[in-house]
Structure formats: structure tokens, C-alpha cells
Write a structure and sequence with these properties.
single chain; D-amino Acid Aminotransferase, Chain A, domain 1; D-amino Acid Aminotransferase, Chain A, domain 2; 6-stranded antiparallel beta sheet; binds 4'-deoxy-4'-aminopyridoxal-5'-phosphate
């Protein structure tokens, strides 16, 4: 079935949804994005995604064309028009179409390009792989130094996914200076002696909206959290590991570079956090 896609104020059949070949997003990867999950027809952690979008745009000096209420209205409309029960809303804002190619930014009053589309994923929260967990490999993190900005430069994460595929595993964990930064499209955690360890926020990693929520719920549940670097070796001797993202929620990780983590089965901390996370965000969904 043809989707309805949002482009710069219009809701169009996907075949008619087009942007210019001169768009800075196309020529320079000069744009940012957000992915917000939909469960039961409602948006999960919308405010967090809207705030990070505003921050990413500000860091790149791209004008934010809408306030949070307007973004919410557009998200709701595209969910309704596509009759999404469970799935995702993908949003992209680029610096726009200056009508030619030039390294220098166009004048700041150029209208940004805004595109939103939906992906229907019935049963998104009941993913069977959450019961068995992901296997991952480690790969060198050769991305740029502003990973805190959610840009559409996703070539290396795509390459990492292909490396994972070639190794017959589910994902790749990036490693820099011996320490895990994050997953190809998720934040990463280990659990040792009941303590949750995850890398602290910096420009080395994306500030995951799911990460923020999961750490808040973990603290409320009196779980101990340590925000610090961990190595591949430490992860291999951890009791458990997991990853978080807006579309995978809390995903247990059971194997790293061929070595089982803990007993190689989905652990109790990841299981509990997944349950708490899904319960709480469903309650707060808009
Ligand atoms: N790190 C990276 C590199 C990502 O691409 C993502 C997902 N967009 C995340 C972390 C998780 O962020 P979020 O929880 O906001 O989806």
C-alpha cells in the first residue's frame, strides 16, 4: 500500500514525495533526523526526540522550522494518515535546497527541507529476538567526532551492519582506544555484580533518548548505575549486556566476538529493564 509522506507542509502519496537533487541533504549529508516509535497508535518519548532534534539543528546552525507543538501535530497527522498502530515515524530536516552545489552554507534564511514518513511494524514491542538476544561483533569506530549530533551521515554505521551480517550476527559495537563507544544504532551497556555500566555522555556518542529514560527508570528501581568507559574484554566477562534505542527498546546482548556474555542467555536485568521501560513509556505515550 502506498504511504502518505510529508514533504515541506504537504501530505503526498509516496511516489509524488520528492526533494531537489540540489538539496544539501542529498549532496552533503547536511541534515539531521529522528526516529520515534509508535505503540498502540501513540508516540513514545516524543518530547525527548523533539528536544534532541532542536539541539542537533542548533549545533549545525540549521533553522528549526517548527516548535514542539507543531512537530507533535505533524507526527500525529502522519501516524493517523498511515493508520499506524505499531511502528516508527522517521523525520529528516536538511539545510535545504540552495539551487546549486557549494561547500559554504547557504544564507541562514533558506527554508530547511522537512520530510517525514512512517514504517509499520506490527508487534514491534513483542519482537521474538528480545527473548533470545543479539549477538554482536566489535569493529573499529572510525566515525567523525560529533556523534552527539544525529546527522544523516550513516554510511559507516551501514558498513558496520554489513560487517555484522557477514559475520552472521545481529549488530556491531564500535570500539575506540580500546573502549566501546556505542552500537551501530544504539547505546550499549554491561551489567556486572548487579551494577549497570554505560559510557558517559560526550561528543563520542549519541545521547540516546531511550538511554536517558532507561537510566531514569533503573535509578527509580534502586539499581546501581556507573557511567564510565568499558572495554571489549570487560564486556566479555560481564554478567549481562544490552543495547537501547527508540526502535529496539532494551535489547539483550548475549554474545560478543563469538564469546558468550554471562551464561550466553538473556539476563534478568535486561529483561526487567525492558519490561519497566515498555510499561512506563506506554503510560506516558502521546
Ligand atoms: N547511538 C546511535 C549511533 C544511534 O544511531 C542511535 C539510534 N538512533 C542510538 C544511539 C540510540 O538513540 P535513541 O535511544 O534516541 O534511539
Amino acid at each position: 500500500m502506498s504511504r502518505t509522506v510529508y514533504v515541506n507542509g504537504d501530505y503526498l502519496p509516496e511516489a509524488e514525495a520528492k526533494v531537489s537533487v540540489f538539496d544539501r541533504g542529498f549532496l552533503m549529508a547536511d541534515g539531521v533526523y529522528e526516529v520515534t516509535s509508535v505503540l498502540g497508535g501513540k508516540l513514545i518519548d516524543f518530547a525527548g526526540h523533539a528536544k534532541r532534534l532542536a539541539r542537533s539543528l542548533a549545533e549545525l546552525e540549521i533553522r528549526n522550522p517548527h516548535d514542539e507543538a507543531e512537530w507533535l501535530a505533524i507526527h500525529r497527522e502522519i501516524v493517523a494518515k498511515n493508520d499506524i498502530t505499531d511502528g516508527m515515524v522517521y523525520l529528516q530536516v536538511t539545510r535545504g535546497n540552495p539551487g546549486d552545489r557549494d561547500f559554504a552554507y547557504p544564507p541562514a534564511d533558506l527554508a530547511p527541507t522537512v520530510v517525514l514518513f512512517t514504517q509499520s511494524k506490527p508487534g514491534l514491542a513483542e519482537s521474538p529476538v528480545a527473548k533470545t538476544g543479539w549477538k554482536v561483533i566489535s569493529v573499529p569506530d572510525i566515525r567523525w567526532g560529533r556523534r552527539d549530533i544525529k546527522t544523516v551521515q550513516l554510511l559507516y554505521p551501514s558498513m558496520a551492519k554489513m560487517m555484522a551480517k557477514a559475520a552472521h550476527v545481529d549488530d556491531a559495537w564500535f570500539v575506540e582506544d580500546g573502549f566501546v563507544t556505542e552500537g551501530s544504532s544504539n547505546n550499549t551497556y554491561i551489567v556486572k555484580g548487579g551494577k549497570i555500566v554505560t559510557r558517559a555522555l560526550s561528543s563520542d556518542i549519541l545521547h540516546g533518548i531511550t538511554r536517558a529514560a532507561v537510566l531514569r527508570f533503573a535509578a527509580e528501581a534502586q539499581m546501581e548505575i556507573e557511567e564510565r568507559n568499558f572495554s571489549v574484554e570487560e564486556a566479555k566477562t560481564a554478567d549481562e549486556a544490552f543495547a537501547t534505542s527508540a526502535s529496539a527498546f532494551v535489547m539483550p546482548v548475549v554474545e560478543l566476538d563469538g564469546a558468550p556474555i554471562g551464561n550466553g542467555k538473556v539476563g534478568p536485568v535486561a529483561t526487567r529493564l525492558r519490561e519497566i521501560y515498555l510499561d512506563e513509556v506506554r503510560k506516558a505515550a502521546v
